[in-house]
Amino acid sequence: MNDSGLDDFFHKRKDWNTYFCVAMASFWLWLFLFYFVSQRFSCMISSKYHQLSVAKRLNWDTRIGSNLHAVIVSVIALYCFFTFDTETRKNAELSRIGNSITMGYISADLLIILLSYKHIGDLFTVTHHLMAIWAYYFVVVYGLLPYFANFRQLAEISTPFVNQRWFFDAIGRPRTCRSPIINGYALGVSFFVCRIVVMPIYYNSCYVAWGTQQQKELGGLVSFYWISTSVVLDVINLYWFSKIVRGAMKITRNLKEGKEG
């Protein structure tokens, strides 16, 4: 191996180690938040926290970390999305950091679910997390498809509103109250814009990239996984959005009947 080859080898090794360290730091951070911070913080913000069942308290604690993760990676994803064309290299690196944070978070969340499977585990969530970890592995370790990985991160913008609806339900606040209604509208709009409206934009970008030399260099397995996971996740998003719409229609109908009554 010549000097140029050695330099390239050690550069790639150092590059991979950097993002791996970010993922590991993220992993331990979310575990620390779950076991040492979430419970104390939850007691401070809600007097009803200790009245919840064990399963709901565990679910509650995971959603505290979920909200923090969503805020961090959403800021990164939005910045990269609006500036990717002008600062491609810089934003590819920043996007990869965001995905490293997510990989660490999902890995920690999966471990928590497995350790508490009796209370909060379900096969759907475990399968989703395993698929996501495998997808982010290609980005974190090899730096593949940073633009498309960043695009998928935009979905996290709606996550805090999803979690907030769960919090309201957990403490028994009726969905017809003012705060759940405002959150419901924010949930519907953010979910629609960040997970549904972006679909044609995303798949058009996939279409444009397909058949290029860069796409061919990915190989069949990575290319298949790239498209198949995107389709599966978007089918799930469409299903969830249909439930959001039906729920919004039901609440609107109840409010209208209440006012008329």
Structural write-up:
- The chain is mostly helical.
- It has one domain (3-260).
- The protein contains ten helices and no strands.
- The protein has helices spanning 3-45, 54-83, 88-115, 117-120, 123-142, 146-153, 159-170, 178-209, 213-218, 220-260.
- Helix 1 crosses helix 3.
- The longest helix has 43 residues, at 3-45.
- The termini are far apart.
- Residues 1-13 have low confidence and may be disordered.
**What's the β-strand tally?**
0
Question: Residue-averaged pLDDT, rounded?
Answer: 86
Low-confidence stretches: 1-13
Shape: globular
**Tally of helical segments:** 10
Question: What string, H for helix and E for strand, traces the elements in order?
Answer: HHHHHHHHHH
Helix content: over 70%
> How many distinct folded domains?
1
Which sheet architecture does the biggest sheet show?
A: none
Strand content: under 5%
Amino-to-carboxy terminus distance: 83 Å
Structural class: mainly alpha
Could you tell me the radius of gyration in angstroms? 21 Å
The assembly state of the depicted protein chains is single chain
